[in-house]
Amino acid sequence: MAIKRMDNIGIVVEDLDATVDFFLELGLDLEGRATIEGEWAGRVTGLGDQHVEVAMMRTPDGHSRLELSRFLRPSVVADHRNAPVNALGYLRAMFAVDHIDDTLERVRARGAELVGEVVNYQDVYRLCYIRGPEGILVGLAQELS
């Protein structure tokens, strides 16, 4: 098998501190922060000389990560924060939560907004989409048992 696991999903943000705070409130752990720069990094991304602040967030089970990046150099060239959920290439991360209503209450205090409504999917899950900081689309799923 060629793939061993999915290591992380990366999202470019403008306000790294606020975004980290939001995902901490959601329940992720901050694994670490670093500055990435230099010729080697530009060879990986194809951007040349780059300078990026990175925060790595980890789910409590330790199996999934979310890499948040703020580019200092080169400057950001596109903004997809307000794209609708059916836009090509749009990114959404889905998280399993214990209690969707409690989670919504906590993240709303950090500025999250419900996209549609909380729905019951075949009495298996309660699901919703929220927009977090920077318009990041996040799905929440509560398993019903």
Number of strands: 9
Tell me the major beta sheet.
5 strands, mixed
Specify the helix fraction band: 10-25%
Q: Average pLDDT across residues?
A: 92
Question: Beta-sheet strand percentage?
Answer: 35-45%
Helical stretch count?
3
For the record, give the distance between the C-alpha atoms at the N and C termini, rounded to a whole number: 34 Å
Rg (C-alpha, Å) = 16 Å
Are there runs of 5+ residues with pLDDT below 50, and where? none
Order of helices and strands: EHEHEEEHEEEE
Based on secondary structure, the structural category is alpha+beta
Shape: globular
Architecture overview:
This protein is α+β, with helices and mostly antiparallel strands and 145 residues long. The chain has helices at 16-26, 39-45, 100-108, and strands at residues 9-12, 29-37, 51-58, 65-73, 92-97, 113-114, 119-121, 125-131, 137-143. Strands 5, 6, 7, 8 and 9 form a five-stranded mixed beta sheet that branches. It is globular.
Question: Any descriptors?
Answer:
38% strand, 145 residues, four-stranded mixed sheet, alpha+beta, five-stranded mixed sheet, 3 helices
Question: How do the strands and helices of this protein lay out in sequence?
Answer:
Layout lengths: L8 E4 L3 H11 L2 E9 L1 H7 L5 E8 L6 E9 L18 E6 L2 H9 L4 E2 L4 E3 L3 E7 L5 E7 L2
Parallel strand pairs: 1-4, 5-9
Antiparallel strand pairs: 2-3, 3-4, 6-8, 7-8, 8-9
